[in-house]
Structures are given as C-alpha cells and as structure tokens.
C-alpha cells in the first residue's frame, strides 16, 4: 500500500472540513471516512459497505451512499466512473497528491498508476492553452492482461 493510504492527515482534514461545513459527527459518515483513509485506490460504495460490515459496523449501504455524496460535494473524494454504471471513490488529498487509473473494459479491473512525464505534459499543455489547470483526472481504458 502506498504511503498516503493510512495518512491520518486526510482523515483529520476530512473530519475538520465536515465540521467546518456544519455537518455533525455522524457515526456512519465517520466510518466511511475511516474506510476511505485506509484505501490505497478507489472502492465502490458496496466494497466500502462490505468492509464496514466485516468490521461489525452497523452501516447500511444507503448510509454509505449518502456519506459519499456529501464527501464528493465537499471535494473530499474523487469519484471515478468506470464505465459500467459503477462509481468508485477515493480520498482527495488536500496537498494534491494523486494517481490515475487504468480500467479493463471487459472485467472492470482497476489499477492505479502515476507518471511524471504525464504530469509534465499536462503542465506544458496548461501553459500552451494559457489555462490554469488546478486538477485533472486521467482514466485509460482497455484490456487487462487476463482479458486480452
């Protein structure tokens, strides 16, 4: 797992943002934040609910969806639509640390990647377009080794 996975900084940032925005500390929302803070990549609402249930947390899928909706609206998570109608979510780190994703069109497998050359190309494009890019999402789609 990558270094930011268990980063208490994002967890604390998320809870502070929720409080600042007037959201009371809800047990379900807090557990979803904790689950996201442990992820090394994106997870579906169902995967988060299953993880919480395995921990014996009494958090229903509807509560997970509601929590994710709030976190997305506040910019605390990135939402990744993988193309089959399923959304995946991951922590949006305040320092801008991020990675990108490659998605298999056949089996839905999702893997993360980072690429310094890609980041530089985006910065160069930003200058050429004279457009201040403050965030970006890159999702590559294709066939994983198992499905080729």
What topology emerges from the helices and strands here?
Blueprint: H1 8-20, H2 27-38, E1 43-44, H3 45-54, H4 61-73, E2 77-81, E3 87-91, E4 100-104, E5 110-113, H5 116-129, E6 139-142
Parallel strand pairs: 4-6
Antiparallel strand pairs: 1-3, 2-3, 4-5
Structure, explained:
This protein is an alpha+beta fold. It has 2 domains: about 1-95, Winged helix-like DNA-binding domain superfamily/Winged helix DNA-binding domain (Arc Repressor Mutant, subunit A, Orthogonal Bundle); about 100-148, Dna Ligase, domain 1. It is about 40% helix and about 15% strand. The chain has 5 helices and 6 strands. It has helices at about 10-20, 25-40, 45-55, 60-75, 115-130; strands at about 45, 75-80, 85-90, 100-105, 110-115, 140. It has a 3-stranded antiparallel sheet with strand order 1-3-2. Strand 2 and strand 3 (about 85-90) form a beta hairpin. Helix 1 (about 10-20) packs antiparallel against helix 2.
Keywords:
Dna Ligase, domain 1, single chain, Arc Repressor Mutant, subunit A, 148 residues, alpha+beta, globular, three-stranded mixed β-sheet, 2 domains
- Main pleated sheet: 3 strands, antiparallel
Unreliable residue runs = 1-5
**Overall CATH class of the largest domain:** Mainly Alpha
Oligomer: single chain
CA gyration radius, whole angstroms: 16 Å
- Strands, count: 6
- Shape, please? globular
Give the ordered list of helices and strands. HHEHHEEEEHE
Q: Averaged pLDDT, please?
A: 86
Please list the strands of the largest sheet in the order they lie side by side.
Answer: 1-3-2
Helix/strand/pairing class, anyone?
A: alpha+beta
- How helical, in percent, are the residues? 40-55%
The name of the CATH architecture of the largest domain is Orthogonal Bundle
CATH fold annotation of the largest domain: Arc Repressor Mutant, subunit A
Number of helices: 5
Strand content: 15-25%
Q: What is the first-to-last residue Cα distance? A: 27 Å
CATH superfamily of the largest domain: Winged helix-like DNA-binding domain superfamily/Winged helix DNA-binding domain
- The overall number of domains is 2
